[in-house]
Amino acid sequence: MDKPMTYRTSSDSVSLKPEQVGVGIWKEFIQLTKPGIIRSNLLAAFTGFWVAARWDIPWMMMLWMLLGTTLVMASSCVFNNYFDRDFDMKMERTRNRALPTGRLQPQVVFIYAVILGVAGLTVLFSLVNVLAGVLGIVGMFVYVVIYTLWLKRTSTWSTSVGGISGAMPPVIGYVAITGKIDVIAVLLFALMFLWQPPHFWALGIRRVEEYRAAGYPLLPVVKGIKRTKWQMIPYVLLLLPVPWLFYYYGYAGIIYAVAGTFINAFWLYVCIAGFRTNNDEQWAKKNFILSINVLMLQFFILIADTMGK
Prior knowledge:
The protein is mainly α. The protein contains 16 helices and two strands.
């Protein structure tokens, strides 16, 4: 019989068989890539690809684009976990991750990040196109170097500037077909870029004491919750014309123009309602969840409306 082994989980040490330990380790490696972030960004990449291709879908190109983008994003997230491991120990939300608890060694995680990054960029450059690969490098550089290593530790601008990396996936999907940056690529970038700061600041308000304890100069920590609520407004406000611009340039129909504007307007209403709340944590949780649904609905409606073009 296999001798049970001790494997430390996020709570206690438990005895597991060797095959169970293997499954646990693989789960740790998967969690390092932040699957939730990858799922939403893959939908963004697919949306950009579909908007450019319409019904004329080069399926193998789409597969390579999604694979390369997945690997590049996974690499960036693993690098983020590697460099943030000391800070993660200070936050309740992150202290049970594999690196802070010692379930995985830093050297192994670093090599894992490098392998994922090299594989992803190789796919984008060789099987998609050069521009897609360049955008992959830009996204990685901004997220790992400018956001994780620099601004996240020093400035309240980290969320806004870091949004550049988060806005790359739909543009990569779009240029996989077009091979160029044009006004639609800019609109896809704007949709993701403008969405990210209010989305993340909602989480920041909800977890403000954790970020303060960890020493992150996040906007609600440095400037306060009220200032952060004001900061959300222009970003959501600037989202209002984006659906109409897709319609104006002929890349979406009236359905997305109207529905997308309504969705953004409702999010703006909820943001403004935050000034009247007596429970910032509850409002921030509601706003954070709403923001995720706002983005998903935007993409689904844009895809559906493009299908009918």
